[in-house]
Write a structure and sequence with these properties.
Layout: H1 2-13, H2 18-28, H3 37-43, H4 47-50, H5 61-74, H6 79-88, H7 93-107, H8 110-117, H9 122-137
Length: 140
């Protein structure tokens, strides 16, 4: 599963068009029976019927991976909605949301920036992150 996640992240970092995004998400789910997110998304089932009945709402990645791919595929053009739907689906959505959030963040930085800017201490957090990145990337 990890190799598929890394390959998906790598592919999304290249800034692909929508056709390539769909292909990357479908490829990431290949090899696991009943995991064709493209076919499932086209069926337009209610999300609660998919995550909870067809796909597990569990938090461990081996079980949440199909749900992550489904949500990423279905809501790839609206990352904010993808994250809200994930939260509203319940179950162990925090881990699923972190993995989904990384994918959605590569598709669009609008959501993360808008939500980050609403944090009370966003300036201080930004300074800490900048210092951390500078320290991590400084020559040794």
């Amino acid at each position: 599963m990890c190799d598929r996640y890394v390959a998906l992240l790598w592919g999304l970092m290249e800034g692909p068009d929508d056709d390539r995004v769909r292909a990357l998400l479908v490829d990431a789910g290949r090899g696991v029976a009943g995991r064709d997110v493209e076919v499932l998304a086209k069926r337009n089932l209610p999300d609660l019927q998919v995550v909870g009945r067809l796909y597990s709402p569990a938090c461990y990645i081996s079980e949440s991976w199909p749900a992550v791919l489904y949500l990423a595929y279905k809501y790839r053009n609206d990352p904010s909605l993808a994250l809200r739907v994930n939260t509203n689906l319940g179950g162990d959505n925090v881990h699923r949301g972190a993995v989904l959030g990384a994918l959605m963040g590569l598709l669009s930085d609008r959501v993360a920036t808008r939500w980050f800017d609403q944090l009370v201490a966003h300036r201080e957090i930004d300074q800490e992150l900048t210092a951390l990145v500078s320290a991590a990337t400084a020559p040794r």
